[in-house]
Give the backbone structure.
Amino acid sequence: MCVRCCARQPDGAGRVCVAIPSRVTRLCGMTVTVECFGIEREVSVALMGEPIAVGDYVLVRSGRHAIERIDRDRALDVLSVMEQFLTTIEAEAASEQRLGGATTGRGA
C-alpha cells in the first residue's frame, strides 16, 4: 500500500494503489525519464522528498509521478515478481484463446 495516498484516506479500507519500480535514465529539472520493462516515459519528481540520480530506482504511481526512491535489490525483486505474474496472465490468455474463449473455471 502506498503510504503517501492510501493511508491518508479516512476509512483506509479497500484502497490500494500500485507503484511500479522504474530506473531513472535522465534528469531534467522536476521531470525525469524512467525505464521499466523496456518502456521509457517522463515522470514528475515534484512529490519526491529526496534527491535522485541517474541509475536510481523510484516508485512511479499512475504512470506520471515518482513518489519515492527504492533500493535497487528490492526494485529488481518486485520487477521479477511482476514479470512472472505478467507471463502467467499472458499464457492463460493465450490458452483460453486457443480453446475458443473457454473459462478456466475460476470465478465462473
